[in-house]
Specification:
114 residues, alpha+beta, Ribosomal Protein L30, Chain: A, 3-stranded antiparallel beta sheet, two-stranded antiparallel sheet
């Protein structure tokens, strides 16, 4: 038998036929940006942050702000890790720049949560 391959035979190495398969693509893991309640940051400031950094409408931002106020924290949005970390850092810096103790953090989403 010849060492040359027939183009129709595929790639043979050591007697095995190797086929190229397309890579399996998976969605990147998602993270929630969480805003934490404090006793000092004005509610209107929180609403403005949600509108400015998360693109929320006034109504949606007000609902999230009320959840933060009554439940201690609220979900601002769900993003890939890099975007979630960036948004949380931007909000934290903006809050500090405006002399407010408000904090954002991120946490992984549960499977199937979007």
């Amino acid at each position: 038998m010849s060492d040359q391959q027939n183009p129709d035979d595929g790639d043979r190495r050591g007697g095995l036929l190797l086929e190229e398969r397309p890579p399996k693509l998976a969605k990147p893991p998602l993270y929630r940006v969480i805003m934490l309640n404090d006793d000092f940051t004005p509610m209107e400031f929180v609403v403005e942050l949600l509108e400015q950094f998360f693109g929320k409408t006034r109504e949606s931002a007000t609902q999230i702000m009320l959840a933060i106020h009554t439940q201690g924290k609220g979900v601002c949005g769900i993003y890939t890790r890099d975007i979630a970390e960036t948004k949380a850092a931007l909000v934290n810096q903006y809050s500090r720049d405006n002399q407010h103790p408000l904090l954002c953090d991120i946490e992984p989403c549960q499977d199937g949560e979007e």
